[in-house]
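Following up on my earlier message about magnesium ion. Here are the inputs again, as you asked, copied directly from the submission form:
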Amino acid sequence: MTFKTEIGTDILRAKQFLDKEEIVAIPTETVYGLAANAFSENAINKVYVAKMRPTNNPLIVHVAREEWIYQLATEVNEKAELLIEKFMPGPLTLLLPKKKLVPDIVTSGLPDVAIRFPNHPTAKKLLSQLDYPLAAPSANPFGYISPTTAQHVYNQMNNKIPFILDGGQCSAGIESTIIGFKNNLPVIYRLGSITLSEIEAVVGKVIINSNTKDILAPGMLKKHYSPSTPLLLTEEIDEAMKKYNGKNIGLITYDSYSPLLPDEQQIVLGKSTNLGQVAHNLYAAMHTIDAVGYDIIIVKKLPDEGMGKSINDRLTRASNV
Ligand code: TXA
Ligand code: MG
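Thanks, got it. Here's what our run produced:
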């Protein structure tokens, strides 16, 4: 099925498509999602097809109110409750044991459902007008860079979906932090817009699941979030530029332009002392620089702490040289 994809701000129009079991791209504060009625297998199937995502990679269910979490999960443990109170609405996704009413196709047959209460005015308004939650992966083709503007979604999803609800550029800019529980201990499955120390301040010590073997989350796949152009992540950008001397190089860096390359071939994401701004600009910069057709994109690696850890995580998965 092909569509003439519309972009608009009309929430009612978005609702009309969703009510007809069609897909709508929606803004959230992290990245845009490819949303469909979470209770409709038919609609969910279309999401997997549009995203070209294998059906063994489950989807996050987006809700409009905290009460909905209790309607989707059989049990919300105490630590989950603390996290809900502190971070929802916001860029947090919780893995909780699912009730039967959540279709297996949403969780790829897994016992837990991923639930998130986004904090974006347009998403909240839309969700509160629906009588079902929205299952949504990030609105990029499987493995590619996530979209943070309606235009990014259009570039990747034109003809594949009927409607993109435009809510401006996503404020946070990288995906939600995903937390599950093992023997009541919180486990981080994906670092994201909420940092490790912010989580630990609420629930104490958490485990970071870095064992890619039993990882169910493709966001944790070693290769992901990738541009088409080869990307090198390194602390030593001067050395890397010398190594690729003679090649057509694009550079993503922080604080100031490098004197080793014309300014037009560089994107300065922001100050390394303001990593919120860096995260906000990251994917847009990757979309822009990937479109140029450089031989190689060199990206400067950040100190591995706080939000820098989440940003490095995405860039490491995006890197392919
Ligand atoms: O910020 C975000 O989380 C964005 C916005 C749109 O909400 N969504 C997003 O979705 O990043 P996606 O599908 O690109 O990444 C969600 C990750 C995937 O790695 C998926 O495997 C994992 O969450 N996931 C979803 N449901 C799961 C479940 N039941 N058990 C384990 N992992 C799950
Ligand atoms: Mg994704």
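One observation from looking it over: The domain at 6-208 is CATH 3.90.870.10 (DHBP synthase). Hope that helps, and feel free to reply on this thread.
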